[in-house]
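Chapter summary example.
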Amino acid sequence: MDKKFDLGAFVNILIISSIAVIIVVISVSHIGRLETSPLLPCDGGWHYEDGADVDLHDLRYGSNIIITRAFEKDEIREKALCFRAKNVLFSVSCGGSVLYDFDPEYPSVYGKSTGTFVHYAGIPYDGDRVEVTIRYTNIYNDSSCYFSNMCIGTSGEYIRHEFYSNIPKAAVSVFMFMIGMILELFAVILGKYIGRSRTATIFLGIFAILAAVWTATETMIPQLICMDPAAVHFINYMILITIPHSAIMFVSVLTENEKTPLVPVICIITVSNLFLNIISTVTGGYDYHELLRLTHTVLFLAISCAFYLTVSSIIKKRQEKLFLRSMVGSFIVILITGLIDLLRYSISKGNNDTAFFLRIGLLIFVTVMGIYTLRDLIVLSNLGHKAAFMRKLAYNDALTGFNNRTAFAEREKDINDNMNGTIFFVQLDINDLKLVNDNYGHSEGDRHIIAASRVIRESFGRIGSCYRTGGDEFIAVIQGKNQDEIEKAEQKFNELISEYNSAEEPPVKLAIAYGISKYEVGEDNPEKAEREADKRMYEMKKKMKSDS
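The structure predicted for these 548 residues follows.
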């Protein structure tokens, strides 16, 4: 029997790994801050053409809007203007010369959003004061268009600062991704032992992986790695649109509500929203960003539905109370954190991290559900191993390792119900086994039986299935082989008996009578073929006794 999975050891390893990750993240972030030279913030001091002050996080709407700022020569010497920008097209100029221009072309399926990315423009420093001009156009008529984190410094310093400052947030995503992969791994490894729980585990794993990737795209790490912010933002939208499916499927399976009509309704709404977003974006209508309210509505509809299914499961007492209450608590956390971030997204200006609280809520949900799911998997796996062991005891012969008469009875039924083609039956019987037991003891008799089983396995067992149907009786069932292959196995069988008798010199030579019959499935019945093989085996037994 396989060893049980040690849940305590697994949890300890998970805790230690998590602490190690936190220590590494803090250390790396600290090292990054130590190695990065000071950057000079310059979010303030910008002016519109009419002299009004500019709030870079709350830009005026419009196209070809100009903002300017003067810099002292010492501020910009051998430095660059570095900043983040989201959903604005712009150019940076100085002294009438364009220093940097950002007006990319992306595939239409990406939508109009440029995503969030870092930009830097080297500034010449002729003269005591230098005036820098930014001419910009908003892509959308809302607060999602902004500049942020504007600094004077080198591009390398700025990128290091952005990278290291986002590592803690990315670490949360990595942790969720690890939980998702562990769940998927467990579902594959323990699949045959855990039954319907495998489906719930797969969907929770998918949800955790999607949530991890989505929260990662809200940091700057993927953008800095792949240097394609629009593609990262497109992935962000696709996950946000499709994630309700895996969430509702997980909850429905876990709460035993698969048959409720709410599940297909949510799935249909999710798929419809996906197609609507893609078609509208590609055809030049509203794009993903402009349809976010619809996507948010579908998300909260799915969360509400999942919450309802969980509560109904509590009422019907389908699951453990503590588990379901934990699930309800996790849903409430997601709802609250999601609402907080939605509110922040709606009212805040130039918010660089629109998923801060939801990231925490998702981490809590995935961790709590992951721990409970893994616990159930381990319990079910241990039960499954026990069931497999008991089945092995019921269907296997302990002495020879062959399947027993019970297993052969099931094979006979399977032959009658499902099989086709040609089947050969080989009935076998060990000669003089009683003589061995009576004169040399049962230990020698067992040795005789084991030797016989080894000969049968190495000959007929190589091309078919072997069963021990009695103390000295065996049968081999061979399907899909021709007469030549049967004859080769028969020849091998006789050679092995001779080799054993010569090498081992048992007190009573090993002798096995056998009879072979052929059965064409559908033409007759297997029992008749078995009786024919049995008859031929007894004829051989009589002949062997008369010859001796």
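To summarize the output: The chain has 16 helices and 13 strands.
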